[in-house]
Amino acid sequence: MRYEGVVIRPPSEAGSLILQVTLGCSHNRCTFCSAYKQKKFRIRSLEDIREDIDGVRGKQYVRRVFLADGDALIVPRRMMMPVVDHLNESFPNLERIGMYANAKSVLKRTDDELRELADRGLGIVYLGLESGDEEVLTRVKKGVGTEEMIEAAHRIREAGILLSVTVLLGLAGPDGSERHARATGEVLTKMDPDYIGALTLMIVPGCPLYDDYMNGEFTVPDPMQSLKELAGIIEHTDVTDCLFTSNHASNYLPLKIELPDQKNEAVYLIRTVLDKDRRDMLRPERMRGL
Fold first, then answer.
1. What is the pTM of this model?
2. How far apart are CA 259 and CA 235, in angstroms?
């Protein structure tokens, strides 16, 4: 299997075969992300992708495949269908294909195309909401608004594909934290995903937000402010049946809860940590990472 540059995948795809069908991200303008800044976006050739699949066939027991890089759903139907068909032909035990997608690429697909992908094994799509606050989305140059996010979420779920949504604690800074939490919970409620993953903002060199931070134009919320924001998001999220996690390495307080059943329990735990200033329960800075 050939890889170009740094390859990123969701934590839940740790055991998956990673197959690069695109290089970089089709949007690549988000101010908080440096993951693909060193890559010029392009779609790999079908020949190269098939060669990579053939190189693994018969050598690995493959149950899951994750299509990288940042927005595999942008690949046109005439090319994507042969890729997923070749995966199914090559790996008889294949149970699920997953990929990152942005709202624009989802909305470019017809309902029939999404259902066709689901029928061929696309089992989960990872969508980065980041924030439900329109002002925040505009400021970080996300490229879409909340209505597009909500519509994309509905389209994915109606096609029978699992939806995992990512939100980013701290993205609004300390001053916008409360509004960010409330708005994010409200949008998540409308999206009603199967999974929600909350990550905590970590600013690294190479992204525009890092320059804003170094220039004093952006302030990163402290750990307790981030926890308060996490509690606010959970409080304002009312979903049908969802696994909510904040156990990424960037998070200060790891959580893995079922919503709505464990909502009150989780909020109570976070409020207890805040009210009693239990910083000893938080992940040390030296152990945090992306």
1. 0.95
2. 11
